Amino acid sequence: MGIAPYCAILVTLVAGWAMIKRFKTHLVLIFSGIAIISVAILCGQTKILNVLGAKAPASTGFVWFDMMDLMRFIFMGQVSGIGLTIMVAGGFSGYMIKTGASSSLVRLCLMPLRGIKRPYLVLPLAYWLGELCYLVIPSQGGLTMLLLVAMLPVLVGIGISKPAGAALIVTCSGLSWGPASGISILAAQTAGIDPVVFLVNYQIPIMLPALVLIPVLHVLVQPYFDRKGGDTVESTGQSEDKAVEAPLWYALFPVLPIILLVIFSPLVYSAVKLDTITALLLVWIGVMLVEAVRYKGNFTKVFAEGMEFFHTMGSTFALIVTLIICAEIFAAGLKISGLISMILNSATAWGLGMSPMTMLLSGIIALVSLLTGSGVGAFTSFVSLSGTMAPALGGTIEQMCIPMLYTASLLRCLSPVAGAVIVSAAAIGIHPFSLVRRLSIPVLGGFFAMMATCFIYLF
Q: Structure pTM?
């Protein structure tokens, strides 16, 4: 390969710098991948389609056209596979928010909080309820906005400070989990595991220590920061009436696909196989029928709300699925350049095994997440490498990709440029760095607990 692997390292460093400078991550990744593949071609690599493995098509006869064909097959594979699942899950989540069903779920979950008189002892319960809501609202930005509207006024009303409440809300989306979460679906697909089985057998056991430690640390550190002061809280005029209202029993709808997927899975009843997309479409159509009754046959309104499913599918494709596609093109470039083979050979020569390599990749993801504020971008950029590197190092894909998944989702909470941090800080009138200070101990404590659990449970 000659200089191709070293050029790939240089391009990767430039790509990292560009993302730190807030260049569009999608375009940085795709053009970095094209640059690396181009160098590999100039260095004599002609069979670039072989990176697709058994599904590789025949060559076009011209290597530069093969590069475009590689991109075409990556697009096709993602849009018809995991990308479609992520788009439908995003569309369903958007429709639940539009109908007010998500708001009903949050209101139902918040009911136990209103009668508690010891303010900061409420934080663990509020955190667990927020994480439960993430199961059906798998968007860090979307969940944060909803909790700022619905949960924050409740927390403030029982005596918790606004900065403490906002810090808690940001961490409610710190652990990505569930069969509706885009990066969780991607991790399960990479490991070749059913999303529900992946959730029950891997995600929940590894999450548990962090789920306990993070809220406990909030209880310990938030009163300290309140006493210390230094947060300038300004009135934002935010009110609870921004949330869409719906009957309280609508809270069933967001969780219904998950209930169906668990029932019709290898865990409960394996005779009937229910796909994630099928479950989401089934409930979406069912809710539209319920809405038609609720609005007494006003199909103009029902169909207008129903279109939110497709609108959110489109935005999910533009923001998440295309990012996965661009990241896969970038990863393909790293493989074609010979960099991955060089890393594996070096790991073998230096005696590095699965654990050190997993820690190295997780460290890179942590740095990217902190600098860019995007856990999705960091994870999708490197997760496909686990499919090649883990078996070569004598481990399993889940051993490598699960620590990477939780590193990306947790440490984005400490980035002052992350959307959830910026929105939460703006909502209560403080600087993002002030919010990050409040987040640092709970998030880092949860991160180290998660990593320790990963290595105890998986290795």
A: 0.74
